[in-house]
């Protein structure tokens, strides 16, 4: 449970970093690119063992991990754009409503996964809670389109991580860190290629910001993997996503002064109830 709580905290920090990048005029793509090499190096130093390139290439998870690394860059940029243009609340809502995708895939594709009536009720209530928490009086077509894109992408990303952890990583910390090193290295190379083609001038502020972002990014992925090992996707993704929604809503209201209606606060209350139901055995 500690791993799950930490994954919630570090995921929320990512949203806050994106919001602060906008306020401070940071080049978001450059920061995201640097963040990946920072996270990869952090994983390497924590792993603290020699890594054979041949061993990585021969790993059973190398090909899906390469694809996922490229997808990471795409989704991180979409998440950053959504946060900066539409606010922390809408970005959190768009990405975290996707909880239904990995949960349903876990239920249908892994025969050993069981879900009780109470847990299923909690998942449905979680969707209602997320919607209520970030329902705004005005929703533009642009907001709806980017919300749908983020919804599908975030759900696919979560489901892919769950699949790789379940099928390939064998519940070993060594495999977790090698997986993280590989996926972040691929993401860094992908982002670097885009920077080269864009011919963008690298700014020291963006480099420094990316180094900061890499720390919560590494730990968010690491603790999500540990949570999946301990609790399984059926529990982890609803609680993780609702937890991020809950914490993001509080910070958005207190720090960024984003308006919260009675319906929004009702959604926060429902999210607490949904977590209790999902965690019921």
Descriptive notes:
With 281 residues, the chain is mainly α. The protein has one domain (2-278). 81% of the residues lie in helices and 0% in strands. It has twelve helices and no strands. Helix 7 (117-133) runs antiparallel to helix 12. The two termini are 15 Å apart. The mean pLDDT is 81.
Task: Kindly summarize this structure in a few lines.
With 281 residues, this protein is mostly helical. It contains 12 helices and no strands.
The amount of helix comes to over 70%
Note the overall shape.
globular
Nearest-integer average pLDDT: 81
Specify the number of helices.
12
Order of helices and strands: HHHHHHHHHHHH
Radius of gyration: 18 Å
**Helix/strand structural class:** mainly alpha
Number of strands: 0
Amino-to-carboxy terminus distance: 15 Å
Low-confidence stretches: none
Question: What count of domains describes the coordinates?
Answer: 1
Sheet with most strands: none
Beta-strand fraction estimate:
under 5%
Please write out the topology.
Layout: H1 2-24, H2 28-47, H3 53-57, H4 62-86, H5 88-96, H6 100-109, H7 117-133, H8 141-167, H9 173-198, H10 204-231, H11 233-254, H12 262-278
Helix pairs in contact: 1-4, 1-10, 1-11, 2-4, 2-9, 2-10, 4-5, 4-8, 4-9, 5-8, 5-11, 6-8, 6-11, 7-11, 7-12, 9-10, 10-11, 11-12
Considering the chains and any ligands shown, give keywords for the structure.
281 residues; mainly alpha; 81% helix; 0% strand
């Amino acid at each position: 449970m500690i791993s799950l709580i930490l994954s919630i905290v570090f995921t929320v920090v990512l949203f806050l970093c994106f919001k602060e990048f906008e306020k401070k005029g940071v080049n978001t793509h450059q920061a995201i690119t640097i963040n990946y090499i920072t996270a990869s190096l952090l994983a390497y130093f924590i792993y603290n063992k020699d890594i054979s390139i041949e061993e990585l290439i021969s790993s059973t998870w190398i090909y899906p991990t390469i694809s996922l690394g490229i997808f990471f860059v795409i989704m991180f940029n979409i998440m950053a754009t959504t946060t900066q243009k539409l606010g922390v609340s809408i970005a959190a809502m768009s990405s975290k409503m996707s909880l239904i995708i990995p949960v349903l895939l876990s239920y249908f594709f892994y025969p050993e996964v069981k879900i009780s009536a109470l847990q299923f009720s909690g998942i449905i209530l979680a969707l209602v809670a997320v919607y209520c928490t970030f329902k705004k009086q005005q929703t533009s077509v642009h907001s709806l389109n980017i919300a749908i894109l983020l919804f599908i992408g975030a759900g696919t990303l979560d489901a892919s991580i769950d699949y790789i952890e379940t099928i390939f990583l064998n519940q070993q910390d060594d495999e977790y860190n090698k997986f993280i090193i590989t996926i972040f290295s691929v993401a860094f190379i992908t982002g670097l290629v885009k920077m080269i083609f864009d011919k963008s001038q690298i700014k020291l502020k963006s480099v420094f910001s990316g180094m900061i972002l890499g720390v919560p990014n590494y730990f968010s992925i690491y603790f999500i993997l540990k949570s999946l090992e301990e609790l399984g996707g059926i529990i982890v993704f609803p609680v993780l996503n609702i937890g991020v929604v809950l914490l993001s809503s509080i910070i958005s209201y207190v720090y960024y002064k984003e308006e919260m209606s009675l319906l929004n606060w009702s959604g926060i209350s429902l999210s607490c109830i949904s977590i209790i139901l999902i965690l019921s055995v």
